[in-house]
Amino acid sequence: LWVLCLLLMVVCSAHTARILAILPMIAKSHHILFHSVLKSLVSKGHHVTSYTTIPLAKPLDNYTEIFLENIVSAEKAITADQLKVVLNLSPIAFSTMLFKEGRRIIEKTFENNKIQELIKSKEHFDLIFLETSFAQEPLLAFGHKFKAPVITLHPFGSFSLINTIIGNPLCLTYVPDFSLAHSNRMTFYERAINSYSI
């Protein structure tokens, strides 16, 4: 009898989840983290459906990938020279540019036919992974649609907007905003700039 109870407990605890990932950001660097997390979940037996702009290099079992074409067109892709200009923007101009681009990406995402089909679908998901930085918060609505918990992924270090969204404290006196080149040993002037940029 004890063996039967133990066997039933193991069988009941070994269920896998259907996981939805919606990752429309067009930066390959963001997807390095996302792909690692999703591949790890697949290796544990979960089924992942990923709507993405950066596909995996090799297909996996239990991993369905839906490519979101038309999120970025060839003429909108950033060049190396443009990236140098972007990285030299002031913190305010840099944040403004990120949010304008994020809004454009999210509008293109919701206009995408495959996302429209997902919105109208009757599919069931147990968990949803999203990147919700840079004006991508409307994606959180998928948690309500599928009545599933949402895990938001963020591919790089902490910065003021994300800290505010997830409830991390803002330590302006010694944690520089990601858009600044300050160290954690800021002068009074650098702290003032850090506070202003946030």
Please explain how this structure is put together.
By secondary structure, this protein is α/β, with parallel strands linked by helices. It has 2 domains: 16-156, Glycogen Phosphorylase B (Rossmann fold, 3-Layer(aba) Sandwich); 168-198, no CATH class. It has 8 helices and 5 strands. The protein has a 5-stranded parallel beta sheet, with helices on one face. Strand 1, helix 2 and strand 2 form a beta-alpha-beta unit. It is globular, with a radius of gyration of 20 Å. The termini are far apart. The model has no long low-confidence stretch (mean pLDDT 81).
Describe what is shown at a glance.
The chain has 198 residues and is of the alpha/beta class. It has helices at residues 2-13, 28-43, 80-87, 91-111, 113-120, 141-145, 160-166, 188-197; strands spanning 18-23, 47-52, 63-67, 127-131, 150-153. The chain contains 8 helices and 5 strands.
User: Terminal Cα separation, in Å?
Assistant: 62 Å
Count of helical stretches: 8
Average residue pLDDT: 81
**Order of strands across the widest beta sheet?**
3-2-1-4-5
* SS content category: alpha/beta
Radius of gyration using CA atoms only: 20 Å
Task: Tell me the β content.
Answer: 5-15%
Helical content (DSSP H or I, runs of 4+): 40-55%
What composes the largest sheet? 5 strands, parallel
Order of helices and strands: HEHEEHHHEHEHH
Shape: globular
Number of discrete domains = 2
Total E-strand runs: 5
Oligomer: single chain
Query: Low-confidence runs (pLDDT<50, min 5 residues)?
Result: none
The CATH superfamily of the largest domain is identified as Glycogen Phosphorylase B
Kindly identify the CATH topology of the largest domain. Rossmann fold
CATH class annotation of the largest domain: Alpha Beta
